[in-house]
Structure formats: structure tokens, C-alpha cells
Amino acid sequence: MNSSPLHPRRDALKLILAGASAPLVLPSRILGQDAPSKKITIGCIGLGMQGILANLPSFLGQDDCRVIAVCDVDQRALDKGVAMVNERYGNQDCKAFRDFRELIARDDIDAVAISTPDHWHSIIAMTAALAGKDIFCEKPLSRTLNEGIAMVRTVQAKERVWQTGSWQRSNARFRWAAQLVQNGYAGKIRRVEVGLPSGHFDFGRTGNDKLDGPVPEGVDYDLWCGPRPVIPFNICRFHRNWRWNYHFGGGQLIDWIGHHCDIAHWGLANSESGVGPDDRIGPLELTATADFPPKEAVWNTATKYRVECVYPGGVEFVIAGGHADIQPGAKWIGSDGWVHVDRDVFKASEIEWLRDIQERDKKGDLKVPLYKSENHFRNFLDCVKSRQRTITPIETAHRSQTPGHLGYIASVTGRKIVWNPETQQIADDAEASAMMGEEMRAPWKLPG
Asked: What tens digit of pLDDT does each residue of 296-344 get?
């Protein structure tokens, strides 16, 4: 895939949709005596972009599950989703919902796929977990750190199967790169570089200078805003482009941190560098700088940013967008060489490593093999049946996004952040600590 930020979803779809398996039978005992059928039943919530383009069609392509309901606050998107499901199954059985709570309340749904804007992830996911549903949810995991902490706690308590939409772990190139690092090819890792996109990308070709306007017919804008204060409707911060305004999203840093930082953690965790497992990994301290548009701009998220972290063992960890010295993707630099991976890049300081790791991965003779998934959706469904952990469980996704959220806080306060990855608290900085969460608009609150 082209690593340019101009097409961040284009070829990802090809990789996500690849690898559908043959039909599998789901015994009802796996889901309990009251399981509605021998197929995993799924409700898809959010059909604005990733939901309608990738997640819904991917589940429709798996024969051992069945999408029986869809939900969106935009009637046009909802109608498209219903039509897609009914066409796939050749009937008119798909149920349509405007309110996610009504979909989740159905006792004939085993799992939900959440593809909403970031500000909705926590409430919907926790509601689903409390209702006993397994969950596939888009990255980034949450809009704030505190939401992520609460989501992890609830999903763990309810023993739900969780898969995060950071699909790169289900791509062989990223696994090979992480295995090179984990198996010591580059030696003791001293520095990690994570390159993310900069600027803004206009998904809807709307232009970011449009004025506020009337809410389109068929859109429940109050419900779309949900836990966030209602601000005037603007097409440039609605479907897809909401991520460029801090009221709803987090810009390129937060939008992409769950991809490349996730891979960087995958290679670094449990290595000789001593940073710990990737479901408990985190920086010890960090500083950050960023270029922000005016707060009143329709697109006001950082266009250029740099986060400098120190991880356990003294590992330098840099996350940057718009800085020429940091290449896109994840790069690990060690005492014996380096490894670099992106969606169209797989490089190392010693070229023979690349073929060697692929051959050893195929033979299964690696000292440190990594979890292997060839299809992110297939992996989720298999884990729903087996009750095993997916390749990107919620704990891992939360830790992958943490440096991004902390980097935003550090860039706004202009101060160094001291972080305790065990307690997940910021030390001695009340203002920064307060930025880990935010009050939700009544009557919305985190459930549980």
C-alpha cells in the first residue's frame, strides 16, 4: 500500500477483505444454550466510512457469521447498510436501528462491530460488554485515556472477546518485522521511531472552509453528537472529516497511533530491551511539540507534531508527523542494526534478515514466534468460538494509543509528562491529569 497520507484507507481495504475462510459450524454450546443459531450473529453500528466500506462487507464475506442488524443516525447510510445486507443474503430480514441501545438490547445478537466516530466508542462498547456481546471496534480505542481505562476494565470484567480494527497485526509483513526485533536480529533496541501522517486529508472533498449550515434531512445530529456538547452542524466536521476537529476526534496523531505505534510496541515488547509485555507497556516520561491551527478553525487538529518518549530500559521512542527525519511506519534501531516496516516497506540493515525471517516463520522454528493471523475478521470470529484472545485485544489497543493521548496533553501544556504505566497516572501535574478525561453531556455517561 502507498504509505502516503493521501490514501490511508485505499489499499487497506484489499488487505482486510482478503483471506476469507471456508464455512465453519458454530456449536450452540459455545455461546450458551440460548444461542439463536449455529452462526455468530452480528450487529454493525456506524456506517459512515470504515463501517460501510470495510467492516460490514468483511463480515458479510464470512460464512460462519450472519449480520442481522445495522445501526446509524444518518438514514441514508442506514439504508445503504440494509440494502447491502439484504442483497448478500437474498432476503429482506436485516433490521435497521437509529439508536445503538435498541440493537444491543436484542438477545439474538452475539457480537457487535463498532465503526462510529471516536467520541462514541467508549459508551457503545461498554454498553455492549455489559449486555454480554463480543466486540469488534475501530481504532483508536477511545477519545480520552480515562475512557480507555474504563473500557479495558469493563471488557475484562465481563470476559468479552475483543478485536481492535488495527488490522496491521494480521498482515505478514508487519509480523515478520516485529519477529525480527523480538528474535534479536537487531540486538538490544535503543531507539524506536514511529512516523505518522501530517496535515489533514479531506475524505469528503468538502474543503475545510465551509460555513455552518442546516442539518441534512434524515440525520439525528443530536444523537450523533451524543456525549459531546452540540455545536453548529458543519459538513466539514461530519462524516469522515470529524477526525480533524478536537471536539470529536484527535487528528492524524490519534487517528494513526493505533496503527504504527501498535506495531512498534509489538516488536519492542518482551524483547531484551526490558519494556514489558504489550498489554502493559508505556512510556515513563515524554515531551511534545505541535503546530495547531486556530482553535476556532473547522479543522483545528495538529498538522505537525513530535512526541519524544523515554521507555523502561532507557529506550528512546519518537512519534512524529511532518518531520523529515522520521520515516512513515515503525523503525527499531538496535545495537546490531535496524528494522523498518510500513505498508509498502520492509527493510533491514542486513538484507538477508528479510528472507531468513520469512523462511523461519514458515517452518515454525523461531525462538520467539508471534501470534499469527492472516485475516483480522476471521481471527475475531475464531476467537468468539474458542474464547481465546484475539491478535489485538483491548488491553493492547489501549496501550498502543496511550503515547498519542499523552503526547497531545504534553503538546498543549508545554510541559514534560511523567507517566506511571503501572498505575496509569500522570505524576504531579493536576492540569495534565485533568486532560486524561472530560465531562460528558447529560444524560450520557460511561455505563456500569
From this structure: 999 999 999 999 999 999 999 999 999 999 999 999 999 999 999 999 9
Q: How far apart are CA 202 and CA 200, in angstroms?
A: 7
Task: Please give the DSSP secondary-structure letter assigned to residue 219.
Answer: B
Residue 70's alpha-carbon distances to 37, 53, 377, 405, in angstroms, are 18, 14, 17, 30
What spatial distance separates the first Cα and last Cα of the chain, rounded to whole Å?
A: 41
Cell of 31: 455461546
Is-above-0.85 flag for pTM? yes
- What is the C-alpha radius of gyration for the chain, rounded to an integer number of angstroms? 21
The grid coordinates listed for 256 are 494513526
**Helix (H) or strand (E) run with residue 426 in it:** strand 425-426
Q: Which residues on adjacent β-strands are paired with residue 420?
A: 425
Q: What is the DSSP letter of 38?
A: S
> How does DSSP assign 194-254, residue by residue?
EEE--S---TTS--TTPPP-PPPTTB-HHHHHTTSPP----GGGSTTGGGGSTTT--HHHH
What whole-number distance in Å separates Cα of residue 344 and Cα of residue 38?
A: 39
State phi, psi for 32 to the nearest 5 degrees.
Answer: 105, 165
Residue-wise pLDDT tens digits, 363-381: 999 999 999 999 999 999 9
Beta bridge partners of 419: 426
Q: Is 439 exposed, middle or buried (0-12, 13-18, 19+ CB in 10 A)?
A: exposed
Long-range (24+ apart) CB contacts under 8 A made by 1-8 are 1/343, 1/344, 2/343, 2/344, 3/328, 3/329, 3/342, 3/343, 3/344, 3/345, 5/197, 5/198, 5/199, 5/201, 5/252, 6/201, 8/197, 8/201, 8/256
Residue 420 in grid coordinates:
506511571
**What angle do the packed helices 145-157 and 118-130 form, to 10 degrees?**
20
- Under DSSP, is residue 308 helix (H, G, I), strand (E, B) or coil? strand
For residue 324, what is its C-alpha cell? 523529515
Backbone angles phi, psi at 313, to 5 degrees: 80, 5
Beta strand 329-334 pairing with 189-196: antiparallel
Q: Which of 393, 381, 376 is nearest to 31 (CA)?
A: 381
171-203+242-371+395-432 to CATH, choices 3.30.360.10, 1.20.1050.10, 3.40.109.10, 3.90.79.10? 3.30.360.10
Q: Name the residue ranges covered by the structural domains of the chain.
A: 171-203+242-371+395-432
Amino acid making up residue 331? K
Cα gap 280→207, rounded to integer Å: 40
Query: Grid coordinates standing for 187?
Result: 540486538
Q: Rounded to whole angstroms, how far apart are CA atoms 47 and 432?
A: 34
